[in-house]
């Protein structure tokens, strides 16, 4: 008998939200046309950037914390299987049930089955990227179960029948008057005299959510961290709605990407400093909820942990690409990315937008399905500098571009250019030929595609009379 | 000092003035400049577009051409970045350990212009004269890949007659990114638009940088909009004197 199970599988098609309908440049086109969206985004990212920068500056050991975070994550990846087995046994010892899900379909089936067995027709949800990744809400709805998002921004997205566009602030693309309209249209029992004053909007959501919290017996969450040595799961958040879900219901089901495990309780010290400062610009997030299995008479009495692969083993198998699994979903890279700032999250087609999305999504799905994403970056490097766990996103983008399928025309052009440029004489004569042929025409207008994209907004320089090489030869 | 000059394909072909200025400047400071003719291109465009295999001969050519020299200068932050951070990586990912070692060694002797002047030649005042209002765009690769820091600004502050004005949101990318400007032309244009607004807001008549590629991009946009602001490579400013 063999234990070789084949190459690690990527996330399956037809389920979940890792793939867009169109390539990035096409999807970005619409966002770039929407000036309201661009204003909303610019305002929000600039505000978060400023706040985060100020609180990070307060920590004299920030760079060493980043190093520590990076080192812990590298260690986790180097022994992920054994840490997961350790986590599994600790969770079981503490009274939890552990399920392993190879992909989105399996995870959805597991969770749907668990909810069905409770008899509940509704679940309350803690904001979670993993459940969005696998399309759990849709799967639950198909099974006749109503998922209610309880994170305010996530609720706005859900009620608006919209898609999240930011990891941390899913409704970042909405302003308050749009939110008022969504609430008036879709929130059960909302006061028709609702204004767009933020406290008023928050109060309306609170009223609706309180009722839902108290009348729902099943919650679904993700996890920011899982501690292998104790079997403890943790969620950090700002609103307290997550804590309601994690403590009030009778049954708690947590869906967690397998990369979220940390070896020891002490490792948390590093991440609880890195995450809030990098993500929301807070010194400490207001709510950190941790739970270990079940405690009789206190909190949920049934706890299920679903360990989700969905392409992560395939990512782990790539020694360069696996750094993407270090991500703690703080969204700092989104907030500093000039491309994200102008196109918004929807252009990326996946629930993981921005720089981390550009390297994570194509790896989870297989690069063929998200081939335009590694190119959705100017390689400016701002994401690398901002990342609290020092993920070298620019190098990973370059690595993935090297694996991406190329069009035959581009491949031919690049091969020809490389052939010419690696032969100095040929190169020098090509320089002269280019000048003679005046391929750039008058001020470079009217070039054929893909060069026409460039000249749509810029003038190309005139070819000089003499190349440097010729000048040097004659002087 | 004997300094080998890597002109870069872009400066050699399209912006010879930036390359000539580099030579004039270094010679004026009393150094011998050598231009090895076998040089072509660092391969950055190929590497960053996903053609590492095609870039391999260019990586090899760079290492071969410049290995004999103690000090190599390149008037481009992004080419210096590619040489320093990508050449050995490309060589080793295609199984050429010998080339990887050689590339790493040559890369360690390759300096961007402001690094060469300040770190190696230990000069901040190069004796330049340039009577213009100038703003400086740091360029992403100079700033974050090779981390030249404030070296270009220190050099500019010593230039006589020069009125240096700060560029708002200077550290934001101009949107060039090599083939990014082709593959995502509209996003690139949106980024460029903001960069131009910031440049124009300074009231400068010249925008300078240490990279001809970003300057080509910004200059192309400024020219299309007829802003009247010119783009000039840092080397050209540093090479200017009262008599030129
Ligand atoms: S890649 Fe880094 S900066 Fe981006 S979300 Fe993940 S941890 Fe945060």
UniProtKB/TrEMBL annotation, chain A:
What the entry lists under Pfam families is as follows: Fer4_8 (PF13183), LUD_dom (PF02589), LutB_C (PF11870)
Give the UniProt record's GO annotations in the biological process aspect. lactate metabolic process
**Molecular function GO terms recorded:** 4 iron, 4 sulfur cluster binding; metal ion binding
* Matches recorded under SUPFAM superfamilies: 4Fe-4S ferredoxins, NagB/RpiA/CoA transferase-like
Question: InterPro entries, from UniProt?
Answer: 4Fe4S_Fe-S-bd, 4Fe4S_Fe_S_CS, FTHF_cligase-like_sf, Helical_ferredxn, LUD_dom, LutB/LldF, LutB_C, NagB/RpiA_transferase-like
For the keyword ATP-binding, the answer is no
Q: Which residues form the LUD domain?
A: 89-294
Q: Keywords for this entry? A: 4Fe-4S, Electron transport, Iron, Iron-sulfur, Metal-binding, Repeat, Transport
So which domain of life are we looking at?
Bacteria
Domain Lactate utilization protein B C-terminal intervals:
402-475
The UniProt record lists the 4Fe-4S ferredoxin-type domain at: 324-391
Name the record gives this protein? Iron-sulfur cluster-binding protein
UniProtKB/TrEMBL annotation, chain B:
**GO CC, any one term:** cytosol
The signal peptide here is none
Question: For the Cysteine-rich domain, which residue ranges apply?
Answer: 3-83, 134-218
Q: Which GO terms describe its molecular function?
A: oxidoreductase activity
Q: What's the name of the protein?
A: Glycolate oxidase
* Species in which this protein is naturally found: Actinoplanes lobatus
Record lineage: Bacteria, Bacillati, Actinomycetota, Actinomycetes, Micromonosporales
């Amino acid at each position: 008998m063999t234990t070789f199970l084949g190459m690690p599988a990527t996330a399956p098609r037809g389920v979940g939200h890792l793939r867009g309908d169109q390539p990035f440049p096409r999807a970005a086109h619409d966002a770039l046309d929407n000036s309201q969206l661009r204003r909303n985004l610019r305002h929000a990212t600039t505000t978060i950037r400023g706040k985060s920068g100020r609180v990070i500056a307060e920590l004299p050991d920030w760079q060493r914390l980043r190093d520590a975070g990076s080192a812990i994550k590298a260690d986790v990846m180097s022994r992920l299987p054994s840490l997961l087995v350790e986590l599994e046994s600790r969770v079981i010892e503490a009274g939890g049930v552990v399920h392993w899900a190879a992909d989105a379909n399996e995870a959805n089936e597991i969770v749907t089955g668990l909810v069905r067995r409770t008899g509940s027709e509704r679940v309350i949800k803690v904001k979670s990227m993993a459940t969005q990744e696998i399309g759990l809400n849709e799967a639950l709805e198909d099974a006749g179960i109503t998922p209610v998002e309880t994170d305010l921004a996530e609720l706005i997205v859900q009620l608006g029948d919209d898609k999240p566009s930011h990891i941390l602030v899913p409704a970042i693309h909405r302003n308050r008057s749009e939110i008022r309209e969504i609430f008036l249209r879709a929130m059960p029992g909302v006061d028709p005299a609702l204004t767009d004053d933020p406290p008023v909007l928050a109060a309306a959501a609170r009223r609706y959510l309180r009722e839902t919290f108290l009348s729902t017996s099943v919650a679904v969450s993700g996890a920011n961290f899982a501690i292998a040595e104790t079997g403890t799961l943790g969620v950090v958040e700002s609103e307290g709605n997550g804590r309601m879900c994690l403590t009030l219901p009778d049954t708690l089901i947590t869906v967690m990407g397998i990369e979220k495990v940390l070896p020891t309780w002490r490792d948390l010290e590093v991440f609880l400093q890195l995450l809030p400062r990098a993500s929301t610009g807070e010194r400490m997030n207001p709510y950190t909820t941790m739970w270990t299995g079940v405690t009789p008479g206190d909190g949920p009495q049934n706890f299920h942990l679903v360990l989700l692969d969905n392409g992560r083993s395939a990512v782990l198998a790539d020694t360069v690409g696996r750094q993407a699994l270090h991500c703690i979903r703080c969204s700092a890279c989104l907030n500093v990315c000039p491309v994200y700032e102008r196109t918004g999250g929807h252009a990326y087609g996946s629930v993981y937008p921005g720089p981390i999305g550009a390297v994570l999504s194509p790896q989870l799905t297989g690069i063929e399905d998200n081939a335009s994403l590694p190119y959705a970056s100017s390689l400016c490097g701002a994401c690398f500098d901002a990342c609290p766990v020092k993920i070298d996103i620019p190098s990973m983008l370059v690595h993935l571009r090297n694996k991406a399928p190329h069009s035959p025309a581009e491949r031919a052009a690049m091969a020809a250019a490389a052939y010419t440029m690696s032969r100095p004489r040929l190169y020098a004569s090509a320089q002269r030929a280019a000048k003679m042929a005046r391929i750039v025409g008058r001020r470079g207008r009217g070039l054929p595609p893909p060069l026409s994209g460039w000249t749509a907004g810029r003038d190309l320089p005139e070819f000089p009379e003499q190349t440097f090489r010729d000048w040097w030869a004659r002087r | 000092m004997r300094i080998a000059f890597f002109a870069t394909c872009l400066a050699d072909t399209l912006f010879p003035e930036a390359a000539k200025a580099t030579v004039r400047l270094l010679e004026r400071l009393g150094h011998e400049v050598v231009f090895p003719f076998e040089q072509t291109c660092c391969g950055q465009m190929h590497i960053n577009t996903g053609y590492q295999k095609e870039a391999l001969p260019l990586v090899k050519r760079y290492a071969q051409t410049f290995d004999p020299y103690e000090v190599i200068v390149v008037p481009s932050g992004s080419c210096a970045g590619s040489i320093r951070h990508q050449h050995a990586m490309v060589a080793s990912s295609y199984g050429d350990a010998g080339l990887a070692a050689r590339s790493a060694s040559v890369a360690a002797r390759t300096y961007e212009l402001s690094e060469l002047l300040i770190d190696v030649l230990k000069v901040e005042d190069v004796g330049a004269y340039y009577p213009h209002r100038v703003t400086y765009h740091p360029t992403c690769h100079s700033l974050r890949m090779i981390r030249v820091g404030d070296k270009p600004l220190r050099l500019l502050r010593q230039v006589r007659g020069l009125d240096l004005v700060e560029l708002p949101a200077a550290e934001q990318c101009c949107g060039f990114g090599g083939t990014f400007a082709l593959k995502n032309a509209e996003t690139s244009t949106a980024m460029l638009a903001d960069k131009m607004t910031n440049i124009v807001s300074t009231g400068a008549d010249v925008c300078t940088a240490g990279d001809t590629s970003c300057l080509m991009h910004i200059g192309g946009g400024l020219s299309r909009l007829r802003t009247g602001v010119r783009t000039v490579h840092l080397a050209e400013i540093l090479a200017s004197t009262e008599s030129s």
